[in-house]
Amino acid sequence: MAIGEHGQPESLFDEAEDAAASAAAPLAVRMRPRSLDEVIGQRHLTGAGTPFRKLIDNDAPMSLLLWGPPGTGKTTLAYVVSQVTKRRFVELSAVSAGVKEVRAAVEGARRALGMNGAQTVLFIDEVHRFSKTQQDALLPAVENRWVSFIGATTENPFFSVVSPLLSRSLLLTLQPLSDDDVREVISRALSDPRGLGGAVTMDDQAADHLVRLAGGDARRTLTYLEAGALGMPAGGRIDVAVLERAVDRAAVRYDRDGDQHYDVISAFIKSMRGSDVDAALHYLARMIAAGEDPRFIARRLIVHASEDVGMADPTALQTAVAAAQAVEFVAQIQRGHQGHRRRRHRRPGGTGGRSACAPAGRALSWCGQGRPRRGLPVPARLR
Question: Is domain 259-382 classified as CATH 1.20.272.10?
Fold first, then answer.
């Protein structure tokens, strides 16, 4: 989508197309902030005197990399930059775009800059999905400032973005929204004419439950709120029962190939190393509930038994190997129990049988039902 020099569609056809798209847009898109004052959260970036705020206030050329979890406002900040600075907004997704689309966007930006001096914000979502060659195609445009490049990534840019592009961009880290921020998102969506416009209300208990389900993700908050409001009569009230019917279960923040994969397994190992039983159970359940390959967990348990426990308890390695072998033969529902037995090996008074499996079962249930603090990021000291 391209937006003109003054933040308006470039033609009447574009305007009609945008109006139709807006009418069918999900609540999370309709509620997207239009100015910095409407942005909720990320005050460490948008506050007065911050580098990001100075770039916008002074209308300076910029190249930015926005790194943060989903639903923290990366696309929103890019859109707000174009609105505040009155620049054309061109959005590409690295999932579907390639070098051809990037070059076409850059050429369009150069043409607009030469004809009427209009600058362009080129926003590339999921930029870490671009190959090195595709990322290199951006370098001339960034180097010569033909575009104001803004890239969004959920992966660590030091591993997923090529060094030349990283060195030419200002890296900004976004944090998950606080509980108060999420409550403000809910309140605004319920009352704003672009959102639900006061058609429905939500009681305090349901709002608290939604905050827990959201896990600091504004997009997830609005998606669940929209699902809860679907089919409600005018003047209806969303309570906990309505919300639970609309949202079967909470999503566990985890990815099998990205930062969370390594952060959670690291936290799991360090929790065992520090003899923190509850923390180790939490991270084990979090991996299993998110669908992590149990064989990967079993291999890391063997490494832990060999390197961290070692000769302090020679039977630890035997137990870890036995658990790994059991994983190969038992059903998925029992796999968590095998890892739990291995993890309990060094706990004084630990027992086998049903009593040893019960804490693992409770932890798995806790992760799968949207309990408080389920989706918080792994503490930095455990990554």
Answer: yes
Dist CA 296 CA 165 (whole Å): 33
**Amino acid letter, 335:** R
Q: State the pLDDT at residue 47.
A: 87
Q: Are 186 and 178 in contact (CB under 8 A)?
A: no
- Domain boundary assignment for the chain: 2-173, 179-246, 259-382
As a CATH number, domain 179-246 is 1.10.8.60
303: which residues sit within 8 A by CB, 6+ positions away?
none
Does 66 have pLDDT greater than 90? yes
Q: Measured between alpha carbons, how far is 97 from 117 in angstroms, rounded to an integer?
A: 26
pTM for this predicted structure = 0.69
What lies within 8 Å, CB to CB, of 68 at 6+ separation is 74, 154, 173, 174, 175, 176
Per-residue burial over 172-205, b if 16 or more Cβ lie within 10 Å, else e, is: bebbbbeeebbbebbebbbeeeebbeeebbbeee
Q: Any idea what DSSP says for residue 157? A: H
Pairing of strands 2-3, 88-93: antiparallel
